[in-house]
Amino acid sequence: MSAQPRPDAREPAMPPAAPGRWARLRLAAQERLVPGEQPRMLAWAGVIGFLAACTTVAFSWAMRHLVGLFTGHVGAPAAAAMTLGPLARLLTPAAGGLLAGLVLVAAGRWLGSTRGGDYMEAVTIGEGRIPAAPTLVRSASSLLSIGSGASIGREGPMVQLAALVASLVTRYANLQAPRRRLLVACGAAAGITSAYNAPVAGALFVGEIVLGSIAFESFGPILVAAVVADLTLRHFLAAQPLYRLPGFESPGALQALTYVLLGLVAGALAPLFLGALDGARALFRRLRLPLPLSLAAGGLVVGAISIDMPQVWGNGYSVVNAILAGEWVGRSLLLLFALKLLATFATVGSGAIGGVFTPTLFVGAALGAAFGQLLGAVAPSLGAQPTELAAVAMGAFLAATTHAPFMAVIMIFEMTGSYPAVLPLVLACVPAYGLARVLRPDSIYAGELRRGAAARVGFASQKVADLMRADPPTVDRDDDLGRIAAQFGAHRFQYLYVIDAQRRYLGAVSLHDLRVLLAQPQPQPRRAVDILVPGFAVLGTSQPLDESLAAFSSHRGERLPVVDDAGRLAGALWKTDVILALHDGLSRTR
Protein backbone atom coordinates (compact mmCIF):
# COMPACT_ATOMS: atom_id res chain seq x y z
CA MET A 1 0.00 0.00 0.00
CA SER A 2 1.50 3.28 -1.03
CA ALA A 3 2.11 6.00 1.51
CA GLN A 4 -0.52 8.75 1.65
CA PRO A 5 0.82 12.23 1.01
CA ARG A 6 0.71 14.77 3.84
CA PRO A 7 -2.21 17.19 3.60
CA ASP A 8 0.15 20.19 3.36
CA ALA A 9 2.44 18.67 0.74
CA ARG A 10 2.49 20.29 -2.68
CA GLU A 11 1.18 18.33 -5.65
CA PRO A 12 3.92 17.81 -8.20
CA ALA A 13 3.45 19.97 -11.23
CA MET A 14 5.22 20.74 -14.42
CA PRO A 15 7.30 23.87 -13.98
CA PRO A 16 5.95 26.83 -15.91
CA ALA A 17 7.88 28.05 -18.88
CA ALA A 18 10.73 30.39 -18.08
CA PRO A 19 9.97 34.06 -18.71
CA GLY A 20 10.25 35.08 -22.32
CA ARG A 21 12.70 37.47 -23.91
CA TRP A 22 10.64 40.59 -23.28
CA ALA A 23 10.08 39.63 -19.65
CA ARG A 24 13.82 39.17 -19.20
CA LEU A 25 14.46 42.58 -20.76
CA ARG A 26 11.91 44.13 -18.42
CA LEU A 27 13.64 42.63 -15.38
CA ALA A 28 17.01 43.88 -16.64
CA ALA A 29 15.59 47.38 -17.05
CA GLN A 30 14.02 47.19 -13.60
CA GLU A 31 17.36 46.30 -12.02
CA ARG A 32 19.11 49.27 -13.63
CA LEU A 33 16.43 51.94 -14.01
CA VAL A 34 13.90 51.63 -11.20
CA PRO A 35 14.72 54.53 -8.87
CA GLY A 36 15.65 54.00 -5.27
CA GLU A 37 13.94 55.61 -2.31
CA GLN A 38 15.88 58.88 -2.45
CA PRO A 39 14.90 59.63 -6.09
CA ARG A 40 11.28 58.85 -5.21
CA MET A 41 11.42 61.38 -2.36
CA LEU A 42 12.90 63.96 -4.71
CA ALA A 43 10.06 63.30 -7.16
CA TRP A 44 7.43 63.75 -4.43
CA ALA A 45 9.20 66.93 -3.35
CA GLY A 46 8.92 68.28 -6.90
CA VAL A 47 5.19 67.55 -6.99
CA ILE A 48 4.74 69.29 -3.65
CA GLY A 49 6.76 72.30 -4.82
CA PHE A 50 4.48 72.77 -7.82
CA LEU A 51 1.24 72.35 -5.85
CA ALA A 52 2.46 74.61 -3.04
CA ALA A 53 3.31 77.37 -5.52
CA CYS A 54 -0.17 77.14 -7.05
CA THR A 55 -1.71 77.33 -3.58
CA THR A 56 0.21 80.42 -2.57
CA VAL A 57 -0.61 82.11 -5.87
CA ALA A 58 -4.28 81.49 -5.14
CA PHE A 59 -3.88 82.96 -1.64
CA SER A 60 -2.19 86.08 -3.02
CA TRP A 61 -4.98 86.51 -5.57
CA ALA A 62 -7.61 86.17 -2.85
CA MET A 63 -5.81 88.67 -0.62
CA ARG A 64 -5.56 91.32 -3.33
CA HIS A 65 -9.23 91.01 -4.20
CA LEU A 66 -10.27 91.01 -0.56
CA VAL A 67 -8.41 94.30 -0.20
CA GLY A 68 -10.59 95.45 -3.09
CA LEU A 69 -13.76 94.40 -1.25
CA PHE A 70 -12.73 96.33 1.87
CA THR A 71 -11.38 99.44 0.17
CA GLY A 72 -12.48 99.47 -3.47
CA HIS A 73 -8.82 99.34 -4.56
CA VAL A 74 -7.39 95.99 -5.68
CA GLY A 75 -3.73 95.72 -4.72
CA ALA A 76 -1.43 96.16 -1.74
CA PRO A 77 -3.05 97.25 1.55
CA ALA A 78 -0.77 100.28 2.04
CA ALA A 79 -1.59 101.61 -1.43
CA ALA A 80 -5.29 101.00 -0.84
CA ALA A 81 -5.19 102.89 2.47
CA MET A 82 -3.99 106.00 0.70
CA THR A 83 -7.18 106.05 -1.39
CA LEU A 84 -9.45 106.15 1.67
CA GLY A 85 -10.67 108.97 3.83
CA PRO A 86 -9.73 109.27 7.53
CA LEU A 87 -12.89 107.59 8.85
CA ALA A 88 -12.54 104.63 6.51
CA ARG A 89 -8.89 104.25 7.48
CA LEU A 90 -9.90 104.18 11.13
CA LEU A 91 -12.72 101.67 10.87
CA THR A 92 -11.67 99.27 8.10
CA PRO A 93 -8.94 97.43 10.07
CA ALA A 94 -11.25 97.20 13.08
CA ALA A 95 -14.08 95.76 10.96
CA GLY A 96 -11.73 93.26 9.37
CA GLY A 97 -10.40 92.22 12.76
CA LEU A 98 -13.92 91.74 14.09
CA LEU A 99 -14.86 89.53 11.12
CA ALA A 100 -11.62 87.56 11.46
CA GLY A 101 -12.39 86.87 15.11
CA LEU A 102 -16.00 85.90 14.41
CA VAL A 103 -14.80 83.37 11.81
CA LEU A 104 -12.53 81.75 14.39
CA VAL A 105 -15.22 81.66 17.08
CA ALA A 106 -17.92 80.27 14.76
CA ALA A 107 -15.58 77.64 13.35
CA GLY A 108 -14.38 76.75 16.83
CA ARG A 109 -17.93 75.92 17.89
CA TRP A 110 -18.38 73.79 14.80
CA LEU A 111 -15.00 72.03 14.85
CA GLY A 112 -14.41 72.02 18.59
CA SER A 113 -11.13 73.93 18.17
CA THR A 114 -9.29 75.79 15.43
CA ARG A 115 -5.93 75.45 17.12
CA GLY A 116 -3.26 72.86 16.33
CA GLY A 117 -1.74 71.73 13.11
CA ASP A 118 1.05 74.31 12.91
CA TYR A 119 3.56 73.13 10.32
CA MET A 120 6.52 73.46 12.70
CA GLU A 121 4.78 71.25 15.21
CA ALA A 122 3.80 68.80 12.45
CA VAL A 123 7.45 68.48 11.50
CA THR A 124 8.97 68.40 14.96
CA ILE A 125 6.38 66.38 16.88
CA GLY A 126 6.76 63.52 14.49
CA GLU A 127 3.57 62.61 12.63
CA GLY A 128 3.63 65.11 9.79
CA ARG A 129 -0.17 65.36 9.67
CA ILE A 130 -1.89 68.75 9.42
CA PRO A 131 -5.68 68.88 9.88
CA ALA A 132 -7.29 70.52 6.88
CA ALA A 133 -10.35 72.20 8.40
CA PRO A 134 -8.57 74.23 11.14
CA THR A 135 -5.88 75.30 8.69
CA LEU A 136 -8.44 76.54 6.16
CA VAL A 137 -10.39 78.37 8.84
CA ARG A 138 -7.30 80.10 10.20
CA SER A 139 -6.25 81.01 6.67
CA ALA A 140 -9.66 82.57 6.05
CA SER A 141 -9.33 84.56 9.28
CA SER A 142 -5.85 85.67 8.24
CA LEU A 143 -7.16 86.79 4.84
CA LEU A 144 -9.74 88.99 6.55
CA SER A 145 -7.11 90.56 8.82
CA ILE A 146 -4.53 91.13 6.09
CA GLY A 147 -7.10 92.26 3.53
CA SER A 148 -8.41 94.93 5.90
CA GLY A 149 -4.97 96.38 6.64
CA ALA A 150 -3.57 94.48 9.64
CA SER A 151 0.13 95.16 10.11
CA ILE A 152 1.23 91.58 9.67
CA GLY A 153 2.77 89.40 6.97
CA ARG A 154 1.04 87.15 4.50
CA GLU A 155 3.85 84.57 4.63
CA GLY A 156 2.46 82.82 7.74
CA PRO A 157 -0.78 81.53 6.20
CA MET A 158 0.90 80.99 2.83
CA VAL A 159 3.49 78.67 4.35
CA GLN A 160 0.85 76.91 6.43
CA LEU A 161 -1.33 76.27 3.36
CA ALA A 162 1.67 74.98 1.42
CA ALA A 163 2.48 72.62 4.28
CA LEU A 164 -1.15 71.46 4.34
CA VAL A 165 -0.90 70.58 0.64
CA ALA A 166 2.20 68.54 1.40
CA SER A 167 0.44 66.76 4.25
CA LEU A 168 -2.46 65.84 1.97
CA VAL A 169 -0.02 64.48 -0.63
CA THR A 170 1.63 62.26 2.00
CA ARG A 171 -1.76 60.84 2.93
CA TYR A 172 -2.42 59.97 -0.70
CA ALA A 173 1.02 58.39 -1.02
CA ASN A 174 0.58 56.46 2.26
CA LEU A 175 4.09 57.31 3.49
CA GLN A 176 5.71 56.56 6.83
CA ALA A 177 6.00 59.22 9.55
CA PRO A 178 9.64 60.24 8.82
CA ARG A 179 8.82 60.82 5.16
CA ARG A 180 5.60 62.66 6.02
CA ARG A 181 7.55 65.02 8.25
CA LEU A 182 10.14 65.63 5.56
CA LEU A 183 7.59 66.31 2.84
CA VAL A 184 5.64 68.70 5.08
CA ALA A 185 8.95 70.50 5.56
CA CYS A 186 9.25 70.53 1.75
CA GLY A 187 5.85 72.20 1.54
CA ALA A 188 6.89 74.85 4.05
CA ALA A 189 10.06 75.60 2.08
CA ALA A 190 8.02 75.91 -1.11
CA GLY A 191 5.64 78.29 0.66
CA ILE A 192 8.47 80.54 1.86
CA THR A 193 9.95 80.48 -1.64
CA SER A 194 6.60 81.51 -3.10
CA ALA A 195 6.29 84.39 -0.65
CA TYR A 196 9.78 85.82 -1.22
CA ASN A 197 11.07 84.43 -4.55
CA ALA A 198 14.00 83.00 -2.60
CA PRO A 199 14.33 79.23 -3.17
CA VAL A 200 17.70 78.61 -1.51
CA ALA A 201 16.83 80.79 1.48
CA GLY A 202 13.45 79.08 1.77
CA ALA A 203 15.16 75.70 1.89
CA LEU A 204 17.71 76.98 4.38
CA PHE A 205 14.98 78.43 6.58
CA VAL A 206 13.38 75.02 6.98
CA GLY A 207 16.67 73.15 7.20
CA GLU A 208 18.44 75.56 9.56
CA ILE A 209 15.54 76.60 11.78
CA VAL A 210 12.91 73.86 11.70
CA LEU A 211 14.90 70.67 11.08
CA GLY A 212 18.22 71.88 12.44
CA SER A 213 20.01 69.90 9.72
CA ILE A 214 21.12 70.39 6.14
CA ALA A 215 22.22 66.80 5.50
CA PHE A 216 21.36 65.73 1.96
CA GLU A 217 18.81 63.08 3.00
CA SER A 218 16.62 65.87 4.35
CA PHE A 219 17.92 69.01 2.63
CA GLY A 220 17.95 67.56 -0.89
CA PRO A 221 14.15 67.11 -1.17
CA ILE A 222 13.55 70.44 0.58
CA LEU A 223 15.75 72.25 -1.95
CA VAL A 224 14.04 70.48 -4.86
CA ALA A 225 10.60 71.55 -3.60
CA ALA A 226 11.76 75.15 -3.20
CA VAL A 227 13.34 75.31 -6.65
CA VAL A 228 10.28 73.78 -8.35
CA ALA A 229 8.06 76.32 -6.56
CA ASP A 230 10.30 79.15 -7.75
CA LEU A 231 10.31 77.88 -11.34
CA THR A 232 6.52 77.60 -11.23
CA LEU A 233 6.19 81.21 -10.11
CA ARG A 234 8.64 82.42 -12.73
CA HIS A 235 6.72 80.57 -15.45
CA PHE A 236 3.23 81.72 -14.49
CA LEU A 237 3.92 85.13 -12.95
CA ALA A 238 7.34 86.10 -14.32
CA ALA A 239 8.43 86.62 -10.71
CA GLN A 240 11.27 89.07 -10.10
CA PRO A 241 13.35 89.95 -7.01
CA LEU A 242 11.11 91.62 -4.43
CA TYR A 243 13.37 94.51 -3.49
CA ARG A 244 15.37 96.88 -5.66
CA LEU A 245 18.82 97.89 -4.45
CA PRO A 246 21.35 100.48 -5.57
CA GLY A 247 24.76 99.19 -6.59
CA PHE A 248 27.07 98.11 -3.77
CA GLU A 249 30.76 98.93 -3.81
CA SER A 250 33.44 96.70 -2.31
CA PRO A 251 33.78 97.89 1.30
CA GLY A 252 37.07 99.29 2.57
CA ALA A 253 38.34 98.73 6.08
CA LEU A 254 36.32 101.55 7.66
CA GLN A 255 33.15 100.57 5.81
CA ALA A 256 33.63 96.96 6.92
CA LEU A 257 33.75 98.16 10.52
CA THR A 258 30.57 100.13 9.84
CA TYR A 259 28.78 96.95 8.78
CA VAL A 260 30.03 95.12 11.86
CA LEU A 261 28.83 97.97 14.08
CA LEU A 262 25.44 97.91 12.35
CA GLY A 263 25.24 94.17 13.03
CA LEU A 264 25.93 94.73 16.72
CA VAL A 265 23.20 97.40 16.87
CA ALA A 266 20.73 95.01 15.23
CA GLY A 267 21.80 92.22 17.58
CA ALA A 268 21.19 94.45 20.58
CA LEU A 269 17.78 95.69 19.42
CA ALA A 270 16.35 92.40 18.13
CA PRO A 271 15.82 90.94 21.64
CA LEU A 272 13.99 94.14 22.58
CA PHE A 273 11.76 93.74 19.54
CA LEU A 274 10.95 90.14 20.45
CA GLY A 275 10.33 91.13 24.06
CA ALA A 276 7.94 93.84 22.92
CA LEU A 277 6.01 91.31 20.84
CA ASP A 278 5.71 89.09 23.93
CA GLY A 279 4.63 92.08 25.98
CA ALA A 280 1.94 93.03 23.47
CA ARG A 281 0.51 89.50 23.59
CA ALA A 282 0.54 89.57 27.39
CA LEU A 283 -1.19 92.97 27.44
CA PHE A 284 -4.07 91.78 25.26
CA ARG A 285 -4.39 88.61 27.35
CA ARG A 286 -4.77 90.75 30.48
CA LEU A 287 -7.60 92.67 28.82
CA ARG A 288 -9.57 89.37 28.66
CA LEU A 289 -11.58 90.50 25.64
CA PRO A 290 -13.51 87.99 23.54
CA LEU A 291 -11.45 87.05 20.51
CA PRO A 292 -13.49 89.07 17.96
CA LEU A 293 -13.26 92.18 20.13
CA SER A 294 -9.55 91.63 20.73
CA LEU A 295 -8.84 91.48 17.01
CA ALA A 296 -11.12 94.47 16.44
CA ALA A 297 -9.21 96.43 19.12
CA GLY A 298 -5.91 95.65 17.44
CA GLY A 299 -7.38 96.75 14.13
CA LEU A 300 -8.68 99.94 15.70
CA VAL A 301 -5.17 100.83 16.88
CA VAL A 302 -3.85 100.27 13.36
CA GLY A 303 -6.69 102.32 11.93
CA ALA A 304 -6.06 105.21 14.31
CA ILE A 305 -2.37 105.27 13.41
CA SER A 306 -3.15 105.11 9.69
CA ILE A 307 -5.22 108.29 9.72
CA ASP A 308 -1.99 110.26 9.42
CA MET A 309 0.32 107.42 8.34
CA PRO A 310 -1.51 105.07 5.92
CA GLN A 311 1.77 103.29 5.13
CA VAL A 312 1.44 101.23 8.34
CA TRP A 313 -1.19 99.05 6.67
CA GLY A 314 -0.05 95.65 5.49
CA ASN A 315 3.27 93.89 5.81
CA GLY A 316 5.43 96.87 4.85
CA TYR A 317 6.72 95.52 1.53
CA SER A 318 6.05 98.68 -0.50
CA VAL A 319 7.43 100.90 2.28
CA VAL A 320 10.65 98.87 2.42
CA ASN A 321 11.14 99.47 -1.30
CA ALA A 322 10.59 103.17 -0.70
CA ILE A 323 13.19 103.16 2.08
CA LEU A 324 15.68 101.34 -0.15
CA ALA A 325 15.08 103.99 -2.80
CA GLY A 326 15.93 106.73 -0.29
CA GLU A 327 12.42 108.22 -0.20
CA TRP A 328 12.19 108.30 3.62
CA VAL A 329 14.67 110.45 5.50
CA GLY A 330 15.06 112.30 8.78
CA ARG A 331 12.13 112.72 11.12
CA SER A 332 9.61 111.22 8.72
CA LEU A 333 11.63 107.98 8.67
CA LEU A 334 11.82 107.86 12.48
CA LEU A 335 8.10 108.57 12.75
CA LEU A 336 7.29 105.84 10.23
CA PHE A 337 9.56 103.45 12.11
CA ALA A 338 7.89 104.11 15.47
CA LEU A 339 4.32 104.00 14.16
CA LYS A 340 4.87 100.83 12.11
CA LEU A 341 6.31 99.14 15.20
CA LEU A 342 3.27 100.19 17.23
CA ALA A 343 0.88 98.93 14.53
CA THR A 344 2.71 95.59 14.37
CA PHE A 345 2.67 95.17 18.15
CA ALA A 346 -1.08 95.90 18.23
CA THR A 347 -1.83 93.44 15.42
CA VAL A 348 0.32 90.59 16.76
CA GLY A 349 -0.74 91.19 20.36
CA SER A 350 -4.44 91.08 19.49
CA GLY A 351 -4.07 87.53 18.18
CA ALA A 352 -4.37 88.17 14.44
CA ILE A 353 -3.14 85.25 12.36
CA GLY A 354 -0.23 86.03 10.09
CA GLY A 355 3.53 86.19 9.85
CA VAL A 356 6.06 88.55 11.39
CA PHE A 357 8.82 87.75 8.90
CA THR A 358 8.11 90.67 6.56
CA PRO A 359 7.49 93.17 9.39
CA THR A 360 10.88 92.08 10.72
CA LEU A 361 12.43 92.99 7.37
CA PHE A 362 10.75 96.40 7.59
CA VAL A 363 12.20 97.01 11.05
CA GLY A 364 15.64 96.13 9.76
CA ALA A 365 15.34 98.40 6.72
CA ALA A 366 14.16 101.38 8.76
CA LEU A 367 16.84 100.75 11.40
CA GLY A 368 19.60 100.57 8.78
CA ALA A 369 18.44 103.72 6.97
CA ALA A 370 18.26 105.67 10.24
CA PHE A 371 21.66 104.37 11.27
CA GLY A 372 23.14 105.42 7.93
CA GLN A 373 21.65 108.91 8.09
CA LEU A 374 22.91 109.38 11.65
CA LEU A 375 26.36 108.13 10.72
CA GLY A 376 26.42 110.41 7.67
CA ALA A 377 25.72 113.41 9.91
CA VAL A 378 28.27 112.44 12.57
CA ALA A 379 31.05 110.98 10.43
CA PRO A 380 30.49 111.85 6.76
CA SER A 381 34.02 110.76 5.88
CA LEU A 382 32.98 107.11 6.27
CA GLY A 383 30.88 107.40 3.13
CA ALA A 384 28.07 105.26 4.57
CA GLN A 385 25.08 105.07 2.22
CA PRO A 386 21.75 104.83 4.10
CA THR A 387 20.17 102.76 1.33
CA GLU A 388 22.99 100.20 1.42
CA LEU A 389 22.90 100.04 5.21
CA ALA A 390 19.11 99.60 5.07
CA ALA A 391 19.49 96.48 2.93
CA VAL A 392 22.26 95.08 5.12
CA ALA A 393 20.29 95.78 8.29
CA MET A 394 17.35 93.79 6.91
CA GLY A 395 19.57 90.73 6.91
CA ALA A 396 21.21 91.52 10.23
CA PHE A 397 17.89 92.00 12.02
CA LEU A 398 16.53 88.83 10.41
CA ALA A 399 19.61 86.87 11.56
CA ALA A 400 19.24 88.27 15.08
CA THR A 401 15.55 87.36 15.42
CA THR A 402 15.66 83.94 13.76
CA HIS A 403 19.15 82.87 14.92
CA ALA A 404 19.84 81.74 11.36
CA PRO A 405 22.60 83.97 9.91
CA PHE A 406 23.35 81.83 6.87
CA MET A 407 19.69 81.84 5.88
CA ALA A 408 19.49 85.61 6.41
CA VAL A 409 22.44 86.31 4.10
CA ILE A 410 21.04 84.16 1.31
CA MET A 411 17.51 85.51 1.84
CA ILE A 412 18.50 89.14 1.29
CA PHE A 413 20.73 88.19 -1.62
CA GLU A 414 17.90 86.33 -3.38
CA MET A 415 15.26 88.94 -2.61
CA THR A 416 17.41 91.72 -4.03
CA GLY A 417 19.44 89.87 -6.67
CA SER A 418 22.50 91.84 -5.54
CA TYR A 419 25.61 89.67 -5.30
CA PRO A 420 27.87 92.58 -4.12
CA ALA A 421 25.66 92.81 -1.00
CA VAL A 422 26.77 89.35 0.20
CA LEU A 423 30.03 90.41 1.85
CA PRO A 424 28.46 93.34 3.76
CA LEU A 425 25.64 91.01 4.79
CA VAL A 426 28.08 88.47 6.21
CA LEU A 427 29.93 91.22 8.10
CA ALA A 428 26.66 92.34 9.72
CA CYS A 429 24.69 89.11 10.13
CA VAL A 430 27.30 87.12 12.03
CA PRO A 431 27.81 89.64 14.88
CA ALA A 432 24.08 90.36 14.95
CA TYR A 433 23.35 86.67 15.48
CA GLY A 434 26.11 86.23 18.04
CA LEU A 435 25.07 89.18 20.22
CA ALA A 436 21.34 88.46 19.97
CA ARG A 437 21.82 84.86 21.05
CA VAL A 438 23.81 86.01 24.09
CA LEU A 439 21.16 88.55 25.09
CA ARG A 440 18.16 86.30 24.35
CA PRO A 441 18.81 82.56 23.82
CA ASP A 442 15.38 82.02 22.27
CA SER A 443 14.65 82.92 18.67
CA ILE A 444 11.33 84.18 17.36
CA TYR A 445 10.33 80.57 16.61
CA ALA A 446 11.49 79.08 19.92
CA GLY A 447 7.96 78.47 21.22
CA GLU A 448 6.88 76.31 18.29
CA LEU A 449 10.15 74.37 18.25
CA ARG A 450 10.11 73.81 22.01
CA ARG A 451 6.61 72.32 21.88
CA GLY A 452 7.78 69.93 19.20
CA ALA A 453 10.88 68.95 21.16
CA ALA A 454 8.82 68.18 24.25
CA ALA A 455 6.71 65.70 22.31
CA ARG A 456 9.56 64.04 20.41
CA VAL A 457 10.44 60.41 21.11
CA GLY A 458 14.24 60.09 21.23
CA PHE A 459 15.98 58.10 18.51
CA ALA A 460 17.96 56.10 21.05
CA SER A 461 14.80 54.92 22.83
CA GLN A 462 13.10 53.54 19.71
CA LYS A 463 13.02 49.91 18.63
CA VAL A 464 13.16 48.48 15.14
CA ALA A 465 9.49 47.51 15.47
CA ASP A 466 8.56 51.18 15.98
CA LEU A 467 9.70 52.13 12.48
CA MET A 468 9.36 48.98 10.37
CA ARG A 469 6.72 48.54 7.67
CA ALA A 470 4.56 45.46 7.90
CA ASP A 471 3.78 42.92 5.16
CA PRO A 472 6.71 43.26 2.74
CA PRO A 473 6.44 41.35 -0.57
CA THR A 474 7.55 37.71 -0.27
CA VAL A 475 7.97 34.53 -2.26
CA ASP A 476 7.45 30.98 -1.06
CA ARG A 477 10.47 28.73 -0.59
CA ASP A 478 9.32 26.40 -3.38
CA ASP A 479 8.38 29.09 -5.93
CA ASP A 480 10.12 28.61 -9.28
CA LEU A 481 11.90 31.23 -11.38
CA GLY A 482 8.75 32.18 -13.28
CA ARG A 483 6.80 32.95 -10.11
CA ILE A 484 9.77 34.83 -8.62
CA ALA A 485 10.09 36.92 -11.81
CA ALA A 486 6.39 37.76 -11.70
CA GLN A 487 6.70 38.91 -8.08
CA PHE A 488 9.68 41.10 -8.89
CA GLY A 489 7.76 42.64 -11.77
CA ALA A 490 4.80 43.38 -9.51
CA HIS A 491 6.71 45.06 -6.67
CA ARG A 492 9.76 46.75 -8.22
CA PHE A 493 12.27 45.82 -5.52
CA GLN A 494 15.86 44.62 -5.78
CA TYR A 495 15.34 41.91 -3.14
CA LEU A 496 12.40 39.69 -2.16
CA TYR A 497 12.18 37.78 1.11
CA VAL A 498 11.68 34.01 1.16
CA ILE A 499 9.36 32.39 3.71
CA ASP A 500 7.95 28.93 4.38
CA ALA A 501 4.39 27.83 5.05
CA GLN A 502 4.61 29.06 8.67
CA ARG A 503 5.97 32.45 7.48
CA ARG A 504 9.39 31.70 8.95
CA TYR A 505 12.05 33.87 7.30
CA LEU A 506 14.54 31.82 5.26
CA GLY A 507 16.51 34.50 3.39
CA ALA A 508 16.35 36.81 0.38
CA VAL A 509 16.59 36.42 -3.38
CA SER A 510 18.20 39.05 -5.59
CA LEU A 511 16.83 40.52 -8.80
CA HIS A 512 20.37 40.55 -10.17
CA ASP A 513 20.86 36.83 -9.46
CA LEU A 514 17.51 36.02 -11.04
CA ARG A 515 18.38 37.99 -14.15
CA VAL A 516 21.71 36.15 -14.51
CA LEU A 517 19.94 32.80 -14.26
CA LEU A 518 17.32 33.76 -16.82
CA ALA A 519 20.02 34.94 -19.22
CA GLN A 520 21.29 31.37 -19.54
CA PRO A 521 20.32 29.65 -22.84
CA GLN A 522 18.22 27.06 -21.03
CA PRO A 523 17.80 28.00 -17.37
CA GLN A 524 17.34 24.96 -15.14
CA PRO A 525 14.20 24.86 -12.98
CA ARG A 526 15.13 26.10 -9.52
CA ARG A 527 13.29 27.04 -6.36
CA ALA A 528 13.59 30.24 -4.37
CA VAL A 529 15.29 28.39 -1.51
CA ASP A 530 18.04 27.32 -3.93
CA ILE A 531 19.13 30.86 -4.89
CA LEU A 532 19.20 32.63 -1.52
CA VAL A 533 21.70 35.48 -1.12
CA PRO A 534 24.39 34.31 1.32
CA GLY A 535 24.91 36.33 4.50
CA PHE A 536 21.92 38.60 3.99
CA ALA A 537 21.52 40.82 7.08
CA VAL A 538 18.38 40.53 9.18
CA LEU A 539 17.03 42.60 12.11
CA GLY A 540 14.91 41.67 15.11
CA THR A 541 11.78 43.53 16.18
CA SER A 542 13.13 44.16 19.69
CA GLN A 543 16.53 45.47 18.57
CA PRO A 544 17.32 49.13 19.38
CA LEU A 545 16.86 51.22 16.29
CA ASP A 546 20.39 52.60 16.45
CA GLU A 547 21.79 49.07 15.95
CA SER A 548 20.26 49.04 12.48
CA LEU A 549 22.79 51.66 11.38
CA ALA A 550 25.60 49.12 11.56
CA ALA A 551 23.57 46.62 9.53
CA PHE A 552 22.79 49.18 6.85
CA SER A 553 26.43 50.31 6.66
CA SER A 554 27.35 46.95 5.12
CA HIS A 555 24.18 46.52 3.04
CA ARG A 556 23.76 48.20 -0.35
CA GLY A 557 19.98 47.85 -0.46
CA GLU A 558 17.30 50.20 0.79
CA ARG A 559 15.51 47.67 3.05
CA LEU A 560 16.33 44.95 5.56
CA PRO A 561 13.98 42.17 6.74
CA VAL A 562 12.72 42.21 10.32
CA VAL A 563 11.82 38.98 12.17
CA ASP A 564 10.05 38.40 15.46
CA ASP A 565 11.28 36.25 18.35
CA ALA A 566 9.91 33.10 16.67
CA GLY A 567 11.82 33.79 13.45
CA ARG A 568 8.73 34.80 11.47
CA LEU A 569 8.96 37.67 9.01
CA ALA A 570 7.35 40.68 10.72
CA GLY A 571 8.18 43.46 8.28
CA ALA A 572 10.96 45.45 6.65
CA LEU A 573 12.98 48.45 7.83
CA TRP A 574 13.88 51.16 5.31
CA LYS A 575 17.24 52.90 5.41
CA THR A 576 15.81 56.35 4.61
CA ASP A 577 13.31 56.04 7.49
CA VAL A 578 16.18 55.32 9.89
CA ILE A 579 18.29 58.23 8.61
CA LEU A 580 15.38 60.67 8.84
CA ALA A 581 14.57 59.47 12.36
CA LEU A 582 18.19 59.96 13.33
CA HIS A 583 18.19 63.50 11.90
CA ASP A 584 14.99 64.27 13.78
CA GLY A 585 16.55 63.18 17.06
CA LEU A 586 19.83 65.02 16.54
CA SER A 587 18.22 68.26 15.37
CA ARG A 588 16.33 68.69 18.62
CA THR A 589 19.48 68.44 20.76
CA ARG A 590 20.76 71.79 19.51
Count of DSSP strands: 7
Biggest sheet layout: 4 strands, mixed
Enumerate how many helices there are, as a single number: 24
Oligomer: single chain
CATH homologous superfamily label of the largest domain: Clc chloride channel
- Which structural class do the helices and strands define? mainly alpha
Query: What is the alpha-carbon Rg in Å?
Result: 29 Å
Low-confidence stretches: 1-17, 452-457, 586-590
The tally of structural domains comes to: 3
Query: What fraction of the residues are assigned to beta strands by DSSP?
Result: under 5%
Report the top-level CATH class of the largest domain.
Mainly Alpha
CATH architecture of the largest domain: Orthogonal Bundle
Give the terminus-to-terminus CA distance: 77 Å
Shape assignment:
elongated
Q: Mean pLDDT, rounded to whole units?
A: 81
How do the strands line up in the largest sheet?
A: 1-7-6-5
The CATH topology name of the largest domain reads Clc chloride channel
Features:
Clc chloride channel, disordered N terminus, 590 residues, CBS-domain, 24 helices, three-stranded mixed beta sheet, mainly alpha, 3 domains, disordered C terminus, single chain, four-stranded mixed beta sheet
